[in-house]
Every structure is written in C-alpha cells, then in structure tokens.
Specification:
It contains 18 helices and 8 strands. By secondary structure, the chain is mainly alpha-helical. It has a two-stranded parallel sheet. The chain has a two-stranded antiparallel ribbon with strand order 3-4. Helix 4 packs antiparallel against helix 8. The longest helix is centred in the middle third of the chain and has 23 residues. It is globular. The relative contact order is 0.11.
C-alpha cells in the first residue's frame, strides 16, 4: 500500500546499508540484489519448497554465514488450501460449466447462469476449462468473447495440474513439520546426487541449542515416564500410526502435545517418524507411523541416551498450534516450524451418521435458498470431515478440508449448531 516513491526510497536505503531491516512481500524480496543479507525471516508458510529455497537464497550470497527463520501456523496451510480451491476449482465445477456449453457460441453471462457456478469461482474455472481444452472462446467477429463447448480430454490434464499444486504444498508442510536435518531434506527433494548425505549440524534439528527463535528444555517427570511407555509400546509393535499410538494413552496429553513429544523423541534419535499414505476415493490421505530405533532400544535397556536428555520443544502446553522456528547458519540451509493438524487424516474417527445426514439436509436447503448446486456449497468430503471431527469452534472448523475463512464466517455458526445438537444424544 505504500506509494512507489516511498518504496523506492526504502529499497535504496536498505541496499546502501542506511537501514538494516526491511519488511517486504515475496515478490519485492526476490528483487533485492544485496549480497550481505544476513537473515531471511518467513512469517508464513511458503507454497512450495522450490519457492522457499529461492527465497532463503537471498541470504548469505557473499559466502558468509547467514540464517533462515521460518515462522508458521497451521492456519497458513488452511489459507493456502482456501486459495487453491479458488484458483483450481474442483473438476465437478468445470464439468458444470462444460455442461452449460453447446456447439453454438453462447455469451459468458448466459453460460454462467446455465451452469449455476458461483460468480467468485466461474472466471477461474472457465479459464482452466479453456486452457485444458474443455471450452473454446470465440476470438473475432460479432460473437467475440462467446464460449463454445470443447472436447472431453481436459479432465486428466487438469486433475494432474491441480494435484501437482497440492502436492507442492504437502511437501512444503512436510518439510516444516519434519524431524530430519533440514538440509538433507532439501538435498533429497532436489536430488543432489553429489551431496555427502551427512547432516548439516547447523539447523534446528541438528543443533537445537543454536535455534534463534525456538527454545528447548528437559522433560519433566511426567514426560519422562510417558516417553518410557512410548518406547516400550514401540518395542513390542512394528510401526503403529501416531494416531494408534496416541490412543494407547486415553488419559494422557492431547494430540498436539503428544505429537510434539514424539517429534522430540525423533529429534533425540530414540524413534523414527515415517510418512505414509493411502488412497481413498481418488484422494491421497497422508499420515505418520512411528518406529523405535536401535538407540531407543538401548535407552530402554539403560545403555542409551538418558530420557532426561530428550530435548522438548518448549512452547505453552495445550495452546494453539502455532509459530516455531529455527534455522541453520548457512545461506543454503532452511528451517521449519513444528506444528501439525489436530489429527492424522488417516486416523479420523468414523463419521457420525446422524450428523452427516443432518448436514446433507441442511446443505441442500441452503443451496436451494442461494440458488446454487449443493456441491458448490460444500463437497461431500467436507461433510464427512465435519461428521468425523465434530468441530466445536470456528478455529476447529478452519482445520478441516474445504472450509476457508469466508465460509467459516458465513456458515460456521449454523454448522456448529447442527454438529452440537446432533451429537448431544450420543454424548
């Protein structure tokens, strides 16, 4: 929002060293050609590892030590998903537009009315349909700008592009939540075959004591006891999901604190956390498994790392998932915050049939009132998530797939009322 002259003055002062800190958008920051930048701070989750790596590359271009700090919360991920749904609408939205087209050219307003697609999605969906061949736009003549039906081959290429963008976000999230050396994670992602494969020794995972933003502490007696019980269970089970492991402690810490404890064990080398996934209704559901390491077994036998030496991420317990982070002291290394979703998607409880049915009835009524197709209001996947997780607050709503800030503000109160009223008898 600054005038261009003011931006030019600030940039010039920064480049000449007159001022030491500048707050900028990503686009502006990428245009800064200053070799002695010592620190790059991200105050939100980037959309891809490729973008993140380029952005932290603004630091340390003179070859001297530099630091990269990443701060993020789970809400950043939800914001990316909100924009993804806006910019890459579901294939069913594109199909609705194509269904409103014919061999004869039709004006865009007529196509929008026939399709029933909301105005805020129509332009983006039509553009994607055109790019992938599902629609043709008349270029010249009296019907210029009108739309004609294309072929059916658009589905596979569009789905591939849409899934690729989500995969980029998944990989960025996995990096931020990761429990392995940040540099090795980046090296593995970009496929550097000449790297030694050794941990960098500088990032928050390799060197917790050097973190600039996040601090660590020794575990308290209760945590020491819980870590011992976790190791004992893992020594007897092959590789349970973290959700299954959490259910072994019905009176233990909530899921967020439990996951934080697991990451602390992984950082200390007592366990290994492994990403896994399965396919459901064409969607990739990602989750994590835990496995005890050789060092963890040694600790159980009293010959390994003492449990009191596990470094616990020192953040308020039971608070909102949120910022974290740390960084390597190298212009080429990055870092990630440690936070995560309320529950592994693969371990979600079964949907409550009563809640799901009432939500479907409400969705149909609301869609008719707004003169929209029901799927444009919420997809079935979102209704299943609502019936499974039974959110009780707007913040919990925002953690679910398909619900962005606008939808939560507009329809959230009614959704929460339905979930509460239909869940009450079962409680």
């Amino acid at each position: 929002g600054m005038p261009s002259t003011a931006r030019d003055e600030v940039q010039s002062a920064f480049l000449t060293g007159e001022i030491e800190v500048i707050v900028a958008t990503i686009a502006f920051g990428m245009g800064v050609d200053k070799p002695d930048v010592r620190t790059v701070v991200h105050t939100g989750l980037p959309g891809s590892l490729e973008g993140y790596y380029q952005e932290i590359g603004r630091a340390g271009r003179d070859g001297e030590p530099a630091r990269a700090v990443l701060l993020y919360s789970w809400a950043d991920r939800k914001m990316h998903e909100f924009f993804h749904e806006r910019d890459y609408p579901g294939p069913e939205i594109l199909a609705a537009i194509q269904g409103a087209l014919g061999e004869e050219a039709r004006p865009e307003p007529e196509v929008r009315a026939r399709s029933g697609v909301p105005e805020d999605l129509f332009d983006s969906a039509l553009e994607k349909l055109w790019i992938h061949g599902g629609a043709r736009i008349v270029r010249r003549g009296p019907e210029a700008g009108a739309v004609v039906r294309g072929d059916e081959s658009w589905r596979s290429s569009y789905r591939e592009q849409r899934d690729h963008r989500l995969d980029q976000l998944d990989r960025m999230t996995a990096f931020a939540e990761g429990h392995e050396c940040r540099m090795l994670h980046l090296v593995g992602h970009f496929g550097d075959r000449e790297d030694s494969g050794r941990p960098c020794g500088r990032c928050d995972v390799c060197s917790p004591e050097s973190c600039a933003v996040r601090s660590f502490r020794e575990p308290d007696p209760g945590e020491i006891r819980l870590i011992g019980e976790i190791l004992q269970i893992l020594s007897e089970e092959r590789a349970p999901t973290t959700g299954q492991l959490h259910r072994e402690f019905p009176t233990g810490p909530d899921r967020r604190d439990f996951e934080r404890l697991l990451r602390s064990c992984a950082r200390t080398g007592l366990i290994r956390l492994m990403d896994d996934s399965f396919q459901k209704n064409g969607e990739t559901i990602r989750f994590r498994r835990a496995r005890i390491t050789v060092e963890g077994r040694r600790t159980l036998d009293g010959r390994g790392v003492p449990l009191r030496e596990v470094s616990i991420d020192d953040r308020p317990r039971g608070g909102r998932k949120g910022s974290g982070e740390s960084l390597p002291r190298s212009g080429t290394s990055g870092t990630g915050a440690e936070t995560g979703p309320r529950a592994d998607s693969g371990d979600a409880p079964d949907p409550c049939p009563r809640i799901a049915e009432r939500l479907r009835e409400w969705r149909l009524e609301e869609a008719r009132r707004r003169d929209l197709p029901a799927y444009c209001l919420f997809p079935d996947r979102t209704l299943e998530a609502l019936a499974s997780h039974r959110p009780g607050t707007e913040e919990e709503l925002l953690e679910l797939h398909g619900i962005g800030p606008a939808r939560a503000a507009d329809l959230g109160p009614e959704i929460l009322r339905i979930v509460e009223s239909e869940a009450a008898p079962e409680e």
